[in-house]
């Protein structure tokens, strides 16, 4: 029971931190205004680890690689801790297990990106109905516009169905390729002492 609680806490804390790191990355990519309260919150929540890493890891083609690397490392550490707490002993001496865990961490960061996009689309859709002039609306528009653009022609009357279409596509991505890859990588992990 204690191990289950620890696994829950590790998973929840790492997932939330990865989401905040990814939000930082995508807000920078979208050139979000630095004075926006959400941007300030995200930066203050992640500066303690991202800024020291930036001194050692330069940006690549303008992308904030230090933030992405931090998200990946957070996922990898969470995976290792969850496997240590698993009922079956995994063999951490095998390089193939470390490769599988590293690839799982990449997959988990990608999955978190999909969840972040889904959340942004849902919040944007709700705000467009209840509070279209909310200060969060322009940021959500910056984040979701490139993904909603291919679906913008889906209208029934005055109702834009592009968020619904994008959510369906994202859910299929989570259900098929991401779930398949996750099962495949978890099956590669070997037990033993």
UniProtKB/TrEMBL annotation:
Q: Which UniProt keywords apply?
A: Membrane, Transmembrane, Transmembrane helix
Q: Does the keyword Membrane apply?
A: yes
Q: Name the Pfam families on file.
A: CCB3_YggT
Keyword Transmembrane included in the entry's annotation: yes
Which cellular component, as a GO term, is one annotated location?
membrane
Residues passing through the membrane, by range: 6-27, 63-86, 115-133, 161-181
The family database entries (InterPro entries) matched by this protein are listed as: CCB3/YggT (IPR003425)
Protein name from the UniProt record: YggT family protein
Q: What organism does the record attribute this protein to?
A: Microvirgula aerodenitrificans
